[in-house]
């Protein structure tokens, strides 16, 4: 599998705000933290932070007749764990782990069974609900500004398998610290420094 390594600074500016919203943070909360978010006064056609990727929704939706790759569960989870930290999936030096290490930047809705509504997918692309494999693709294409994985690939199946385990861990984490996901300010956003468009304090 080939990854795109070229850095695209203009695209990278959208990363932080979208990653924070990727798995369900309410758009209102996101807007307060990110003046570049779509729908805020600061967003406009001239603002590269507000630009939407017209290909993201299509690339993130399951194709007709889709049948995911099947393999040994343990092998897929192990491979997915490596991909979770692999910046080669992006074009802006981000990986899934850049924002989600230690269950950071997940909203409480991540604990819900998929498919379910996710604010980023709904608000930006009109997707009323989304499957976990579609969410993985959307995160790669939008916050990480990468290329969607082949739907039949082992890599996609591996990331989905690992995210299923991540979701189990998040549920346990949420049970111990229920206030963490409800308060978007409780955990510092590790991606904020990567976003020059983030609100200055």
Automatic annotation (TrEMBL):
Coiled coil: none annotated. GO terms for molecular function: electron transfer activity; heme binding. This is Cytochrome c domain protein. Pfam families: SoxA-TsdA_cyt-c. InterPro entries: Cyt_c-like_dom, Cyt_c-like_dom_sf. It comes from the Bacteria. PROSITE patterns: CYTC.
